[in-house]
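Predict structure. Chain length: 151.
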Amino acid sequence: MSDTAATFRIGELAKKADKPVRPSHFYEELGLLQPASRSPGGFRMYTNKALDRIHWIERLQELGFSLTDIKQFLADFHAHDTGPQSMEALRSFYAEKLTETQSAIARLQALEAELNASISYLQACGGCAVIEPVHACAQCDDAQHSNSDTP
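Prediction complete.
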């Protein structure tokens, strides 16, 4: 197979990735994506490796990584001389995101508990027979409202 058959221009890359061209240009501007070569006419040419990179970037974004995170990871990853060092950088990258995710889950669970408590508190007045305005009515006792002679 010749090199020209194995490479394609950015429009074809975007079509294969099922994306507009702009993200591919943006990834290249950020240094996340690099062309494999240039055509005789000066066009940037990409291989399936670039397509894999686009899918990898998308997956990392789905996992909550920003493009800045991904760029920093790639710089760190390529700064290592050995496979084990690079894999440790990747492990650390994922571990940091896991810690952030666990913290976000804890915050959301606390918010969920607070919202459920607030809903329960507010539902307590749903069956209240008092028609007059009440400033705070949660779990009011009917005896208070049945004796409307007292202010």
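Summary: The helical segments are 3-6, 10-17, 21-30, 48-62, 67-78, 83-123, 142-146.
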